[in-house]
From TrEMBL:
Gene name for this UniProt entry: fabG_4
Protein's UniProt name: 3-oxoacyl-[acyl-carrier-protein] reductase FabG
Naturally occurring in which organism (per UniProt): Methylobacterium crusticola
Pfam families cross-referenced by the UniProt entry: adh_short
Ketoreductase domain location: 8-187
Family the UniProt entry places it in: Belongs to the short-chain dehydrogenases/reductases (SDR) family.
Length: 264
């Protein structure tokens, strides 16, 4: 399917691995020109090379900047003053008992997961409204709707992202700008095995056993009973970034394998 993204400039945060890299690859395949910020030059270069090797026709520009910090956001806004698509994907997660969550933990997750994306939206949303064109996508999580008891601080940040996305969408009334959120479920990524070990009854079990126990014990509502592949999330994000999604605005679209047990 042609998503008509040729010539569009898309900024994707957290795009050196996992969901973010899959999103960047898919947008490049659809013809979008990419801006990839990151803190590690080697990882940025590897991501850009991988995207090129995947056959994308879009150009790739990397910017050495921490998109989750105030300084990094300011640098991005100076270096790249206008984008057509903003994908706020950068995020961190961890399992931690509620009693053990420190003030520093709360601030660290909020700074990266909530404030980081809000800063970039503040930088690019006004320009989109002025041009009457643009797409913003927040990569949230099913945890924002079904908060896991061992990741309460993470879940709260993901609920906050949904609030920001919906409230911004309300400001687009009568324009061609859209703001949406995507809710992935547990997704296969670079650090997922370490996470599964952190919540497993037997951390030394084989990865397949870790995954099976995780869904049996921690995500029993999942209808697919497996990790989601990053490219499955990327397909939804690419659609939302495209002109084909013009009538989808202010929505929280679920790509979580059926964990959320509601019909809407």
């Amino acid at each position: 399917m042609d998503l008509h993204l040729t010539g569009q400039t898309a900024l994707v945060t957290g795009a050196t691995a996992g969901i973010g890299l899959a999103i960047a690859e898919r947008l490049a395949l659809e013809g979008a020109d990419l801006v990839l910020p990151g803190r590690d030059r080697a990882k940025l270069d590897a991501a850009a090379a991988g995207i090129a090797a995947a056959g994308g026709t879009g150009r790739v520009r990397t910017v050495l900047a921490d998109a989750g910090s105030a300084e990094g956001a300011a640098l991005l806004a100076r270096e790249v003053p206008q984008v057509d698509v903003l994908v706020n994907n950068l995020g961190i997660y961890e399992a931690r008992a509620f009693e053990a969550i420190t003030d520093a933990d709360w601030h660290r997750l909020f700074e990266t997961n909530v404030v980081g994306g809000a800063r970039l939206a503040q930088a690019y949303f006004p320009g989109m409204l002025a041009r009457n064109a643009g797409r913003i996508v927040f990569v949230s999580s099913e945890s924002g709707l079904v908060p896991p008891p061992d990741m309460i601080h993470y879940a709260v940040t993901k609920s906050a992202q949904l609030t920001i996305a919906r409230a911004l969408a309300q400001r687009t009334r009568g324009t061609a700008v859209t703001v949406n959120a995507v809710l992935p479920g547990p997704t296969r990524s670079e650090g997922i095995v370490d996470f599964l070990r952190s919540v497993a009854s037997d951390p030394d079990a084989a990865p397949a056993e870790l995954e099976a126990e995780f869904f049996r014990v921690h995500r029993p509502l999942s209808l697919i009973g497996r990790m989601i592949e990053p490219k499955e999330i990327a397909a939804m994000v690419a659609y939302l970034a495209s002109p084909l999604a013009a009538a989808t605005n202010g929505a929280a679209l679920r790509v979580e394998g059926g964990i959320v047990p509601t019909i809407a």
